[in-house]
């Protein structure tokens, strides 16, 4: 029984490419909680977050969305990105912008929305 708080719009920092990369982006899972978590009214308002519920999904599977990633570059002063994976909000059945979305499936369905972000260029490295 898992519930995910997912960012449904990009958070941006217009003053710095590096800091902008470190902001949570659309589809990033912010936190995973057990079923029945007491989400705040702001979290349930529908923007900038959506609560996605998988009553038959496990917290351990949902936690696989949480590892960070690194911006890659030849000189590699590593920049930690908040997440290596995102929840694909564009697949059928998801209505980002609504306060919450409930799915009937379990871990397999939850993980079918998981997408790896891939290599991200380090904005401090010029090739």
Describe the model:
There is one protein chain. It contains 4 helices and 9 strands, in the order βαβαβαββββαββ. The strands form 3 sheets. Strands 2-1-3-7 form a 4-stranded mixed beta sheet. With 127 residues, it is an alpha/beta fold. It is 15% helix and 28% strand. It has one domain (2-120).
SSE-based structural type? alpha/beta
The average pLDDT value, as a whole number, equals 86
Cα gyration radius (Å): 15 Å
* Sheet of most strands: 4 strands, mixed
How would you write the strand order of the largest sheet? 2-1-3-7
Overall domain count: 1
Distance between the termini: 46 Å
Task: Characterize this entry briefly.
This protein is of the alpha/beta class and 127 residues long.
Task: Set out the fold topology.
Blueprint: E1 2-7, H1 17-21, E2 29-34, H2 41-44, E3 49-54, H3 59-62, E4 69-72, E5 79-81, E6 85-87, E7 100-102, H4 107-112, E8 114-116, E9 120-121
Parallel strand pairs: 3-7, 4-9
Antiparallel strand pairs: 1-2, 1-3, 4-5, 6-8
Brief descriptors of the model:
globular, 127 residues, alpha/beta, 4 helices, four-stranded mixed β-sheet, 15% helix, three-stranded mixed β-sheet
């Amino acid at each position: 029984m898992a519930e995910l708080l997912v960012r449904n719009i990009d958070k941006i920092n217009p003053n710095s490419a590096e800091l902008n990369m470190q902001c949570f982006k659309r589809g990033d899972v912010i936190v995973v909680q057990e079923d029945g978590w007491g989400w705040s009214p702001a979290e349930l308002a529908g923007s900038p977050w959506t609560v996605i519920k998988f009553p038959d999904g496990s917290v351990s599977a949902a936690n696989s969305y949480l590892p960070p990633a690194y911006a890659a570059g030849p000189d590699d002063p590593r920049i930690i990105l908040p997440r290596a994976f995102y929840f694909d909000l564009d697949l059928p059945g998801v209505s980002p912008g609504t306060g919450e979305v409930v799915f009937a499936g379990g871990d397999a369905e939850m993980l079918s929305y998981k997408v790896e972000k891939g290599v991200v260029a380090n904005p401090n490295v010029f090739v």
